[in-house]
Amino acid sequence: MNDSQADEVMYRPPFEAGSFLLEVTKGCSHNRCSFCTMYRNVPFRVLRDEVIIRQLEEVKPYASRIRRVFLENGDPFALSADRLLHIAEMIHCRLPAVETIAMYASVGNIRGKMDAELTALRKAGFNELNIGVESGLDLALIAMNKGYTAAQAGDALLRLKRAGIEWGANVIFGGAGAGNSRENAEATAALLNKTRPYLIFTGTIHADAGCPLYEEMKQGRFLEPTIGEYLDEEEQFLSWLDLDECFYFGLHPSNIVPMQGCLRRDREKLIQEIRSSRQLYQDRLDERPFRGEEGTIV
Ligand code: SF4
Hints:
Distance between the termini: 39 Å
CATH superfamily: Aldolase class I
Number of helices: 10
Bound molecules: iron/sulfur cluster
Largest sheet: 8 strands, mixed
Order of helices and strands: EEEHEHEHHEHHEHEHHEEH
Helix content: 25-40%
Shape: globular
Strand content: 15-25%
Radius of gyration: 19 Å
Structural class: alpha/beta
Oligomer: single chain
Number of domains: 1
CATH topology: TIM Barrel
């Protein structure tokens, strides 16, 4: 396969719309989360220097305007610290205005690095990593096949924080299944209160054909929460969150209530939005969501 070929979709968080997307890997090194179809048929690969340099050379005429780079694809933080530092060098010498190098990363990626390596990466500009933490409850982490426990996630995220690297948490409501919403909300809020992300990106559990969770749901082995339970889970999660200066981004199409705001300032307003939505969904609170593309609530 040709490294320079755009042979798969490149995903990025919505808030990275203004970043220069630099492809340094293909696929995801874990590629086993039960709900994920993003890279199912894309083996994880490391792109060669020449492929990276070619992309950087193409945008060199706009170098003075590029302050932020988002590395692609699924978890480039899986690369060794030495490889990432080399990528940073290639970026900084061609795009000297770059201040931040962000990317998707996993708890497992952090666990594979020493504290001194994390510190060196921060010095080289790596910051504001987007991490699919998903939950602070082991039951949910097992159901989603994340490959780590909540305790391991807590340790890794605190090490990242100590190295000065800020990070945003992706959270998936309903990952613990029906009947466990309160426990999931409480454990996830506790994990984030301890580890203090600068951003929280929320969604609800859903599965497209082609991933293990789709089969689990079809065969009734995994039962997602009802609309009422989802609303309770998010309200409880927000009530337990004890964070300042954290952006709450709840605009993923799979969310029951689309909303966003700054914690702690807007917390009561966000909770109020959930309460108002109970009125809107009053006839469907005991139903499970009917979903369209990307988990959109129909
Ligand atoms: S770590 Fe992210 S990209 Fe990889 S399988 Fe899990 S959800 Fe998908």
